[in-house]
Amino acid sequence: MNLADFAPIYPELVLLVFSLLVLMLDLRIKRDKDKSLLGLICAFGLIIALYLVLMGIYGFDHSGQTQDVFNGLIKYNLFALFFKLIFLIAAILVVIGSMDYVRLDKNQGEYYGLLMFATLGMMSIAQAGDIILLYVGMELASISTYALAAFRKDRMNSEAAMKYFIVGAFSSGIIIFGISLIYGLAGTTNIYEMGGMLDTTLATHGPIGLLAAVLLIAGFGYKMSLVPFHMWAPDTYQGVPTTVSAFLSAGSKKMGFAAAFIIFLVVLNNSIISSQWQIMLGVLAGATMTYGNVVATVQKDIKRMLAYSSVGQAGYILVGLLVASAALDLSMQSLMAGQIPMGEFFNTIAVLGLGAALFHILTHTVMKAGAFLAVASASSIGIGDNIEDYKGLRYKAPITALAMSVFLLSLAGIPLFGGFVSKFLLLYAAIAGGLSPGFMWLLALGGLLVVNSVISLFYYGRVIIFMYFSPDEGGWAGMAEPGFLKIALIVAAVMTIWMGILPDIFVTLSMDAAKSLIIEIISFSPF
Amino acid sequence: MSPLSYLLLVPFTGAILAFLVGRANQGSSRYIALLTSIITLLISVFIFILWSQDPSKWYVAEATPWITMEYYNSPLVSFTLGIDGLSMAMVLLSALLFVIAVVTSFETIKTRVPTYYMLLLLIETGLLGVFISVDLFIFYIFWEIVLVPVFFLIGIWGGANRQYAALKVLIYTHLGSLAMFAGVLMMVLVGLNLDNVFGIRAHSYFDMNYLSNVMQNLPQVWQSDDRAFQFKSAVFILVFIGFAFKIPLVPFHTWAPDAYVEAPAPVSLILSGLLSKMGAYALLRIGMNILPDSFQAFIFPITVLAIISIFYTAFSALAQKNIKRLIAYSSISHMGLIVLGFATFTSMGIKGSIFQMISHGLIIALLFISCGMIIDRVGTDKISNLGGLITGMPLIGWVLVFASMASLGLPGLSGFIGELTILTGAFQAHGFLLPSIMGIPLAFIVIPSLAITAGYYTWMLQRAAFGNLSPDVMKSRSAVALSESIPIVILIVLIVYLGLFPSSLMDMANQTLVALKFSIGDFVRQFGVI
């Protein structure tokens, strides 16, 4: 084994080195005020990792091949790289914003260190070829974020962090229970081999498989904050420091999706049990987007509102997952019946569904991180977290108000912003899946997506009304917007608009990423 | 780049410039906006001259792939622009009305001037984009992007109840647009990769021409007439909801009176004169060009809806105490007539509706301008407080009288020609397509609405223009600034000109029918696969 064998995990190694560096330098810097330097170092490390990931993406072509690393422990493909890209973008935006937001706090070294450890954990999930790696990565990320969440230690913060910790630990327990059942059925920890093994054992032990599926839905439901497992999310997002909310919503939640995609599409997409958990997940998806959006309309606290909107968006993303899984089922059936062209057609729909979900994850990461950072920016100049407090924000913090409008309009799915294109692709995938035989209910999900999109416009629009349509209440004597947060907001806003105006490169990347996972699944299937 | 892209590029650049330069020097932004809108008008006239030499070749002027997918033969979405008779007429109208809106804003808008002109020019970009895009995805983007500046324009410069009105516009029309978009997506998904089967060239899978072909050939593709018909009906219902919100038709109209009333006069002019035309335009473009047979199948409900819309809003107008609200309801009532013209499916009725689209745009602009001037000066919009406009401010009073007369269809003015042609079409269609209720032809039912229209206008004039001179009117200044009078003169000249020489516009409407593959004189459209 030589150094070149480690090329696929260079970004992770860079993160590891830099996080240790940050922790050590923390001991040398005495005054809290000077510790923004740690943030710079942290950002530097993340950007190097981002560069390596981008070079990795550049090295792949459109064929969707996968490279086995360390005997299949790591599946190095575009799917993994795509998620690494997302986590790094989230982390970079949050770190840049944090340099202002936590500038005066204690324990900044730990803050940045934990942030990098969490990113490291998330990045290892997307490339997991072995379920142990997946679980360990998830725990690394979770435990780091538990500590991050309790960063400020005031009463509200502690309560929020405690809630997050208990629910998180509980859900990890449920997940490991589900995984152990699956392991018992399959006899291997390799995720991709599990699928094939389950084909034989599930014929006799179907109910156990179903029980495992239910446990995994519940466990990952907590991580993805699906209704009815979402209760922790609004309280936590509201209580923890706003930059951490941004990181939880933009990064940690997407980790749940990365793991769920792998588990549900690779392991559980088995014709014996899939139709049952698909319906379950479909109902959850519908409930999640409707509940999240409806409840968001009555929120008074902007962070709670964004949290509920985030719950709603999780429902949208699930639609893509469901389309992919339904199409994979149909593809397997067609291949079994020897209809090769039909199977290939359904594969394209599976790629479309998964790709749409991936693209929405990307846009949502940027928009949500941006929106929470805008809240951080507003609160760092002394504006409260109530939506009412945003009255006349454009006079007090013009850049924040403008960036916030971009994120909110994008979240609502208004054209020329990234959120529109990704929502379009999700709707497109839902209709494409719904026109396939036996999956009419996907059309209903598509319809719900449209209705919820309109509902969401109400509460997003209300914030813009407060920010822009209120008269100037006289000179704002407070501080100007902090510089680093401004940079983070501008970067996020530019990315949001870029993904809306020239989406082709991002769409192609998401589709290629989806394709690499689907091809890998097909190649492990018995046909 | 074809000249069509300049139609988008110039107003967009102007918008940015008006904002940036305006920040340094408030006053300059209005002149930049004026210059931009005039250049845009000149470009559209230039395109008109080029286009009229050979109308056929302009249908697709340029196409650039925008979203591509690996498994598809053609791009999923491409940035495709084109123009035909209908688009040409709408482009000219929009470019003209924007010059007028900008000039009108000189006197009315005093706060946050640069932002205002930026938003106004952004609407122009979006509207022109709607009228010249061939790709339905791009069409939808422009269709939706218009909403954002409208939201801000109403919300910032609107009247007392502006926040409510702004949010209502945004949510209602967004709901309609999404329904339309879902319908379009269904068509696109059916049409994927069929270009190989037919050997047709698709610029993209959202290309209107391509979708039109796919929808015509759907029965052959699916080998089932019933299934194709059901599918097309479902699509038609979805897209029609989108148009009905925008036009607006009763019962999808509730956002419109609020928006028209709360918006400042130049924006009301754009809303009622152009944004509602987007709906009518799309009805013709998508409803009639892509889904003609479903349109025919739904003629009865659409006609009934149009008639209900005409009467309901006419009666509402009769009951209004607020002059701007009266004009708003009158505008919606006239839009119902336009939909009725389309639903006759005769070349006469459709030509009449196209004519009426332009004529209504001009007349409603004049109405909102004069009404805005009155409200600005007198400070009230209650009809009862406006008595004696003719004596108090003769010039503006007579403009209001002229505009009302044009709107109620006085012969010799453009409104008359449009209504007459639509009604002729409706009578022609009777017995062939338009059904009847209890033996009474539907066309016949519409006639009394003209009397109601005349009723609410003359009653309003009697109270406002010719009544006793009210103290409010007596106090207000009657002088008219140059920037206010220019748009009024232009509009009056055009309304009279179109009333006396309608053939110039009718020829263009004919061109539209040709583009829509109607053969003139044919009663019902015959399908011909290209």
| SSE class of chain B | mainly alpha
Low-confidence stretches of chain A: none
Give the ordered list of helices and strands of chain B.
HHEEHHHHHHHHHHHHHHHHHEEHHHH
Main sheet makeup of chain B: 2 strands, antiparallel
Supply database-style keywords.
heterodimer, A: 527 residues, mainly alpha, two-stranded antiparallel sheet, 2 strands, B: 530 residues, two-stranded antiparallel ribbon, 4 strands, 3% strand, disordered C terminus
Can you tell me about this structure?
The complex is a heterodimer of chains A (527) and B (530). In chain A, helix 2 packs antiparallel against helix 3 (78-101), helix 3 (78-101) runs parallel beside helix 12 and helix 6 (155-186) runs antiparallel to helix 7 (191-224). Chain A has a two-stranded antiparallel sheet. Chain A is globular. The model of chain A has no long low-confidence stretch (mean pLDDT 91). The longest helix of chain A is centred in the C-terminal third of the chain and has 41 residues, at 340-380. By secondary structure, chain A is an all-alpha fold. Chain A has helices at 10-28, 36-58, 78-101, 108-126, 131-149, 155-186, 191-224, 232-239, 242-267, 274-296, 302-336, 340-380, 393-396, 398-412, 418-434, 441-468, 483-501, 504-524; strands spanning 67-69, 74-76. By secondary structure, chain B is mainly alpha-helical. Chain B is 75% helix and 3% strand. Chain B has helices at residues 3-24, 26-53, 85-108, 113-132, 136-145, 147-157, 162-191, 194-198, 208-222, 225-246, 255-262, 265-288, 292-297, 299-319, 323-344, 347-378, 389-392, 394-408, 414-429, 442-464, 471-475, 482-500, 503-515, and strands at 62-67, 77-81, 436-437, 440-441. In chain B, the strands form two sheets. In chain B, strands 1-2 form a two-stranded antiparallel sheet. In chain B, helix 14 runs antiparallel to helix 15 (323-344). The longest helix of chain B is centred in the C-terminal third of the chain and has 32 residues, at 347-378. The two termini of chain B are 28 Å apart. Chain A binds chain B through residues 62, 348, 351-352, 409, 414-416, 420-421, 424, 427-428, 431-432, 435, 446-447, 450, 453-454, 457-458, 461-462, 464-465, 468-469, 503-504, 507-508, 511-512, 515, and chain B through 65-71, 137, 140-141, 144-145, 147-148, 151-152, 155-156, 162-163, 166-167, 170-171, 174-175, 178-179, 181-182, 185-186, 188-190.
